[in-house]
Amino acid sequence: MLNLCVTPRPRWRCAIDRLVLWNIDLTLLDVGRVSRDAYADAFRRVTGRPLAALPQLAGRSDSEIFFESLYLNDVPTGEDEVADAELLARYCWELETAFALRQDGLVQQGRLLPGARAAVTATAALPGVVQTVLTGTIKPNAVAKLRAFGLDRLFDLEIGGYGSDAYPRGSLLLLVRGQAGDKYGTAVASHTAVYIADTVRDIEAAQLGGARSIAVGTGRDTVAELRDAGADLVLPDLSDTQQVTSAIDRLTRVPASR
User: Average pLDDT of 197-202?
Assistant: First the structure.
């Protein structure tokens, strides 16, 4: 099995004051064509059938996409939870392999979204900040996406939340906060965590998982929909670096008495 998860360990601070979580797809970058091709390849290898119908991808994990694809394409699932788990494990393995075969296409057919590199770089320089990801993509493919555009070193990917984890995204955010607290020795309070993403489902996850939220209108959901979902701030994109970092700083500012 390919192991794309092994990355040089970042030189993170020994303590954490603020946790910034980023969604990847349609928040930082767009590699949709490569991802869809990899989904189709992995689905065919696991089920023996072509992927004729693909469900809505926005805000969904790779595991959700797989089971919805089974339903849409009239493919029966396993006989019980154990069989379903084995089927999903096979699919994730095939998805990792299919994605690895398409590495060159990430940059050739994909793109960073406006302001993404500058926003992530500037956020990394904020006092007390540790950055990670909360994404629907399985971990090896999430790492591959970030690495292709030179962003992987700006995140602590060890504590991130990924689409291979069998949790709703709100629960996964809670898990990431716990993992960050365990690693850095300081509990991550809800008012010191912020999730930056592009879908209504992501905003709901932030609310359930105990984090502030910044929504960007670079995905499928409109600015109005993101605002109505209760995002703490909605931006058209990440192109205004100062606006992004100021918002993160304001939403996660540690009280002066601390």
Answer: 96
Q: How far apart are CA 160 and CA 131, in angstroms?
A: 9
Which CATH number belongs to the domain containing residue 219 in this structure? 3.40.50.1000
140 plus 200 within the same structural domain? yes
Q: Does residue 1 sit within a domain? A: no
At 86-120, the pLDDT tens digits run: 999 999 999 999 999 999 999 999 999 999 999 99
The span from the CA of 178 to the CA of 183, in Å, is: 9
Q: Is 26:220 a contact under the CB 8 Å cutoff? A: yes
Provide the domain limits for residue 138: 18-30+112-251
H or E segment and range at residue 18: strand 18-22
Phi, psi for residue 194 in degrees, rounded to 5: -140, 140
Note whether 130 and 18 are within 8 A (CB): yes
**Residue 256 maps to a domain:** no
**Helix/strand/coil for 246:** helix
> Stretch 75-94: mean pLDDT, rounded?
88
Residue 228: predicted pLDDT: 98
First to last CA, the chain: 46
Instruction: Enter the tokens of residue 258.
Output: 């601390």
Whether the predicted pLDDT of 167 surpasses 90: no
The answer as to whether 2 is a domain residue is no
Query: Does the pLDDT of residue 257 top 90, yes or no?
Result: no
Taking the C-alpha atoms of residue 117 and residue 13, their distance in angstroms, rounded to an integer, is: 21
Residues 157 and 237 in one domain: yes
- Residue 254 has which token pair? 């540690």
